Amino acid sequence: MEHAEFNKDLLKFLNASPTPWHAVATMESRLAAAGFHALNERDDWELKPGTGYYVTRNGSSIVAFRTGNGDVSASGIRMVGAHTDSPCLKVKPNPELRRKGFFQLGVEVYGGVLLNPWFDRDLSLAGRVTYLGEDGEVHDTLVDFRKAVAFIPSLAIHLDREANSSRTVNAQTDLPPVMMQVPDGDTTSFHDLLQRQISEESGEKARKILGYELSFYDASGAAFVGLRDEFIASARLDNLLSCYIGLQALLNTSGDEAALLVCNDHEEVGSVSAEGAQGPFLSAVLDRWCGTGKAKAIAGSMMVSADNAHGIHPNYMDKHDENHGPLLNSGPVIKVNHNQRYATNSRSAAVYRHISDELGLPHQTFVVRSDMGCGSTIGPLTAGNLGVTTLDIGVPQFGMHSIRELIGTEDGYTLFRVLTEFMQRKKIF
């Protein structure tokens, strides 16, 4: 895959994936088109050498792997991990608000959202809906309104003279988006709107809405930005970018060696769930793949936890350690924290640097300032659960956890090239 093709396809992937469920569905479609076989956790598995497989859990997490042509317990597995979720505003179970003729929805803040950028944006709505069908059975379906259906208007500065100096956001009262105006006596419910949307998207008739997991998202699509198109701006770059990179690396490997991609949900809220990185999903897949040779396979394996890094912001340079300020378009960032907020050690970092150097590609290193706290990733959780040697790395970006984020056009492709080589490397260590 060439550089320009990679970035154009990345934009398509981002636009097709407004929620974790849509991201997983998009990945499933691409894996199936490449000849990977779907697995179901309820079935017995008969895995064959030299074959690709994938399995999902909750529709929002996925594990895809190539079995390779050798003994996995001897060869180990070349693993890449990422997460499908992003900070956002999720619709509450009983969300309807009718005030002064405006129809609004109550929302819950999911993850560490940077809230101010959500104001004055064209918002759409997507996610999973569970409903009772005309056949009397319970079904799940994905919905995506695709167009701008809501707006969170700012209060005019004339009514808030301190807005530019001391504005705070109350998540309960300030964030309910405006969806439409309704006349007095209108009884349209949110469930009515969902039933109509299901019918329009799938042609199915929903007798009753039984539940949903829906989130608002920026209706503006991913786009190239900059006088020389040297940046990409999009929602959910953290961490759908890494999901895309890992997927493309897996699809472009030779298939000779055992390789795996895991994309977990719920990283932004701690990863403690049935499908999160602190849950049993990946371990259960490895149990069924490796059998009694799992411990030996893990000992010879390596996990690359790919999650975006903080690029040094030219307006806030003092927020970085003076020797560890990653630049956009200067290479992926090896993330180091000796307090184990990142799982990188000297050996795992050396594996990446060696491959990157062999390919003549750049790389950088990030360490948080010693007087600041450090975020984390699925890396330490996966390393702790499996006992696998792990590297934390990511593409540098601006605006992390904002409704719209920014990366350089070079770094994602660079990481893709290194991870492709890593996934088909005959010997990891």
List the main descriptive attributes of the protein structure presented here:
globular; 2 domains; 20 strands; single chain; Aminopeptidase i, Domain 2; 9-stranded mixed beta sheet; alpha/beta; 429 residues; Aminopeptidase
Characterization of the model:
This protein is of the alpha/beta class. It has two domains: 273 residues, Zn peptidases (Aminopeptidase); 131 residues, Aminopeptidase i, Domain 2, CATH 2.30.250. It has eleven helices and 20 strands. It has a nine-stranded mixed β-sheet with strand order 1-2-3-13-4-14-18-16-17, sandwiched between helices. Strands 8-7-10-5-6-9 form a six-stranded antiparallel β-sheet. Strands 11-12-20-19-15 form a five-stranded mixed β-sheet, with no helix packed on it. Helix 6 packs across helix 11. It is globular. The mean pLDDT is 96. It holds the Pfam family Peptidase_M18. One of its GO terms (biological process) is proteolysis. One of its GO terms (cellular component) is cytoplasm. Its cofactor is Zn(2+).
Element layout with pairings:
Layout (H helix, E strand, L loop, with lengths): L2 H13 L4 H14 L3 E2 L13 E6 L3 E6 L5 H4 L2 E6 L4 E12 L2 E9 L12 E11 L4 E7 L18 H4 L11 E4 L8 H13 L3 E13 L4 E3 L5 E4 L2 H16 L6 E6 L16 H10 L3 H6 L2 E5 L2 E2 L22 E3 L10 H13 L5 E3 L11 H9 L2 E6 L1 E3 L6 E4 L2 H13 L6
Helix pairs in contact: 6-11
Protein name: M18 family aminopeptidase
Organism: Marinobacter salinexigens
Family: Belongs to the peptidase M18 family.
Which CATH top level class of the largest domain fits? Alpha Beta
CATH superfamily of the largest domain: Zn peptidases
Q: Would you count the extended β strands for me?
A: 20
| CATH architecture grouping of the largest domain | 3-Layer(aba) Sandwich
How many DSSP H or I helices? 11
Q: Report the CATH topology name of the largest domain.
A: Aminopeptidase
Helix content: 25-40%
Strand order of the largest sheet: 1-2-3-13-4-14-18-16-17
Report how far apart the termini are: 27 Å
Q: How many discrete domains?
A: 2
User: What is the 3D form?
Assistant: globular
